[in-house]
Amino acid sequence: MEEEGKLRLASPRGRGVVAAAVLGSSVAFLDSTVVNVALPTLGRSLGASFAGLQWTVDGYSLPLCSLLLVGGALGDRFGRRRVFLLGLTWFGLASVLCSLANSVAVLVAARALQGTGAALLVPGSLALLRSALDERDQPAAIGAWAGLSGVATAAGPLAGGYLVEAVSWRAIFVLNVPLIAAALFVARRCVPESGVRQAGPLDLAGAVAALLGLGLLTWGLIDLPSSRRGGPLLVAAGAAGVVLFLLRERRAANPMLPLGIFRSRQFAGANLTTLAVYFALGGATFLLVLYLQRVAGYSPLAAGASLLPVTALVLVLSPVMGRLVRRIGLRLPMTVGPLVIAAGLFLLSRLSAQASYAYTALPGIALLGLGLGLTVAPLTSAALTGAGERFAGVASAVNNAVARVAGLLAVALLPLAAGGLSSDPRSLAQGFPAAMRLAAFFCLAGAAIAAVTIPGAPARRPA
Fold first, then answer.
1. Helices then strands, each counted (H, E), the chain
2. 96-110 core/surface letters (b: 16 or more CB in 10 A; e: else)
3. Would you say residue 199 has pLDDT above 60?
4. Which residue has the higher pLDDT, 259 or 96?
5. Given its phi and psi angles, is residue 79 left (phi above 0), alpha (psi -120 to 50 degrees) or beta?
6. Phi-psi region of 419 (alpha: psi -120 to 50; beta: other; left: phi over 0)
7. Angle formed by the axes of helices 425-453 and 331-348, nearest 10°
8. Cβ–Cβ contacts within 10 Å for residue 247, how many?
9. What would the mean pLDDT of 454-458 be, rounded to a whole number?
10. Which of 419, 191, 455 lies closest to 330 in space, CA to CA?
11. Which of 45, 392, 428, 432 is the most exposed place for a label (fewest CB within 10 A)?
12. CA distance 440 to 356
């Protein structure tokens, strides 16, 4: 029997909801990676310093991480479809501004506007699936979203490299426009409104506290790897801001982030697992690509292409796991997946610069892809369903924020924890094995967390 007011995935409108969610999240994920390969050309064109190039990347990440909670809460309160459409439009206009930038200062400002638009649409893309689709179809839809969004993220460096060489660095921003136009068209035709609740005044103090706390924390983590003095102070200030935000939300009559959702063992466990697994993946993939270039002598394109097996496996397995969790539950794949990732990281800790890619790197990378393919869709489902449909936007925002902060933490701290390794080839070669083993330990911790916090039976509708 069809849930009242909900769409089935097999219907044209149901497929349209998934298409809109995938297109929306894809432009946000694509722009987090597509710019990297264009930086040298962009720097020459605009006369940018190294610091200017850094802020071209960080100017996008900073508002995105800082405003995710605000974006999710706005969708839950004023309508997820409405805020999603606003985020798409905002992102598209900011992309046009990026393509027209005549100085690095203008480009960084436009990138910050892009990040703000992304913070509005990313939580909404998942919340739409949770609120619009019949509960029986949600795991399969989330699996499709995870697989296709992962492809968009991985395609960024390849698409960016081609467009920079064949057209111009400005084309990487123009690329967003037709994707956003398609997402707007499909969303307006297929996505129903949901999440509108008008109980009490908006928690402006909570929104400001979240912005300052997450903003300072993100900024500090971005600065830590370069050993700037301000990095630790910013991290400390950001952590204090997050604590103040939580204290504010505990007392607020109409909190932006209802802390009661963390009473759900499933929701809390899913986010702790996300923190552990994405810390491991963020640090390991960052160091692996660096190792392949600096130690093994790979070109940037070859190093990026070496991770394509991960993308292929996530694309194939995520929809399958999305459908399978209805029968086997969430606990098994969320426990086994991180264990497989840990095995892959242990194999990569034995990486040799002299041996062939197929003999040394590929087995570990294949296990990474297999483990991720088993984990991503169930992990996302656990985070969304654990909070209840009423708070789908906030739940999505929390999970996205945890994943992004975990990646920033890993890039900042994993090299230090592995003996202070740097991009110098000798230092990388010596410290890389320890870094991979440490990352594997975090995946083992994620598997243990999932085993004790995630229900073993198939997910049931939360109260």
1. 17, 0
2. ebbbebeebeebbbb
3. no
4. 96
5. left
6. left
7. 160
8. 11
9. 76
10. 455
11. 45
12. 23
Q: Which of 143, 30, 16, 145 is nearest to 81 (CA)?
A: 16
Q: What is the dihedral of CA 217, 221, 223, 227, to 10 degrees?
A: 130
Instruction: Decide if 382 contacts 42 (C-beta within 8 A).
Output: no
pLDDT in tens, 20-39: 999 988 888 887 777 877 77
Other CB atoms within 10 Å distance of the CB of residue 260: 11
Cα 182 to Cα 179: distance, rounded to the nearest angstrom: 5
Instruction: Return the closest-CA partner of residue 146 out of 328, 453, 394, 383.
Output: 383
Positive or negative, the Cα torsion across 155, 161, 167, 170? positive
Phi, psi (rounded to 5 degrees) for 356? -75, 160
Separation in Å, CA 372 to CA 179, 340, 344: 26, 8, 11
Residue 377 is encoded by which pair of tokens? 């869709």
pLDDT digit string, tens, across residues 355-395: 788 888 899 999 999 999 999 989 988 988 888 777 888 88
C-alpha 89/C-alpha 219 separation (Å) is: 26
| Phi, psi for 7 (deg, rounded to 5) | -95, 145
- Within 8 A by CB and 6+ apart from 95, the residues are 31, 114, 173, 174, 176, 177, 180
Distances (CA, A) of 194 to 77, 146, 159, 353, 413: 9, 22, 35, 53, 40
Query: In this predicted structure, what is the pLDDT of residue 131?
Result: 83
Q: Over the stretch 305-348, which tens digit does the pLDDT of each residue have?
A: 788 898 889 888 988 898 888 888 999 999 999 999 999 999 99
Q: 3-class SS at 133?
A: strand
Identify the bridge partners of residue 7 per DSSP, sorted by sequence position.
133
Longest dimension (CA), the chain: 64
Q: Which residues are paired to 25 by β-bridges?
A: none
Q: How far apart are CA 438 and CA 346, in angstroms?
A: 9
Task: Give dist(CA 9, CA 195) in Å, integer.
Answer: 20
